[in-house]
Amino acid sequence: MKAFLLGCVAAMVIAIAGMVVLNRVQEPVAQAFATTGVRL
């Protein structure tokens, strides 16, 4: 039971860390596709 709980906590920590990293790396759509030929 202890190993299962540790696994659940580890999965949650990894998911939260991934969410934080992806939110910092990704650009908003207006910046990512801002070229002369694109209208948003």
Structure, explained:
With 40 residues, the chain is mainly alpha-helical. 70% of the residues lie in helices and 0% in strands. The chain is built from 2 helices and no strands. It has helices at residues 2-25, 29-32. The longest helix is centred in the middle third of the chain and has 24 residues, at 2-25. The chain is rod-shaped. The mean pLDDT is 84.
Topology:
Elements: H1 2-25, H2 29-32
Number of helices: 2
Mean pLDDT level: 84
The rounded distance between the terminal residues' Cα atoms is 52 Å
Main sheet record: none
Based on CA atoms alone, the radius of gyration comes out at 18 Å
Shape: rod-shaped
The portion of residues forming beta strands comes to: under 5%
The low-pLDDT segments are none
Helix content: over 70%
